[in-house]
Design goal:
200 residues, two-stranded antiparallel sheet, 7 helices
Length: 200
């Protein structure tokens, strides 16, 4: 089974058939898909300027989509290295019980569904790397009451999500399943009650 870097080389290789290059980009999403496979594909296609069902997109557009994915993957891999170092230090210092961020991180290891979008057509507009930087920054500071990606105030609790956890606060502005550790208890309670969050 080919890894992400091997697949990325195929996307860039002009000697490869265009269908294989497109297929290889899709396969990259099996290794890293921050919004989930379908939503990440829709995002990359819309940002690079080709249709999700386009069977023969411009090769330059395929490479542009790959470059955006690679930039986001670099951000996430750097976060995972820092996370692993922090956990090693905590264990060395006797802190064996992981916190809520650690529980969330366990569900997103490798970067799949980091900013899960249950509806593949509703996802953040900005570059993936910027979205992940915003999410990581939120994980590293005190919890807040708004979406860490778009600062959206409209968070609603959704059930039966096609992800783990299968319930949680979803931003109605950008579509992500907001990680619970980045929200205050009051913000989580408001989302559960179905009230729209309003900042002061």
């Amino acid at each position: 089974m080919a890894g992400f870097r091997s697949l990325a080389r195929q996307v860039r290789d002009p000697r490869c058939d265009l269908a294989l290059r497109r297929y290889s980009l899709r396969k990259c999403l099996e290794r890293f898909a921050p919004y989930g496979h379908r939503a990440t594909w829709d995002h990359l296609c819309s940002r690079a300027g080709f249709g999700p069902e386009d069977r023969s997109p411009d090769p330059a557009r395929l490479v542009a989509a790959l470059e955006e994915l690679e930039a986001a993957r670099s951000v996430w891999l750097a976060y995972e290295v820092g996370f692993a170092e922090r956990r090693r230090k905590e264990k060395h210092d006797g802190l064996r019980r992981p916190g809520s961020v650690d529980d969330w991180h366990r569900l997103t290891w490798g970067g799949f569904g980091v900013a899960w979008c249950d509806d593949p057509r509703v996802h953040p507009d900005g570059p993936l790397a910027e979205v992940l930087r915003g999410l990581i920054s939120a994980l590293e500071r005190e919890p807040g009451s708004v979406c860490p990606v778009c600062d959206g105030e409209r968070l609603v609790w959704k059930y039966d999500l096609d992800h783990e956890p299968s319930t949680g606060p979803v931003c109605t502005d950008c579509g992500i399943l907001v990680p619970r550790p980045v929200l205050t208890p009051d913000a989580l309670a408001d989302a559960r009650r179905g009230r729209l969050l309003m900042t002061a």
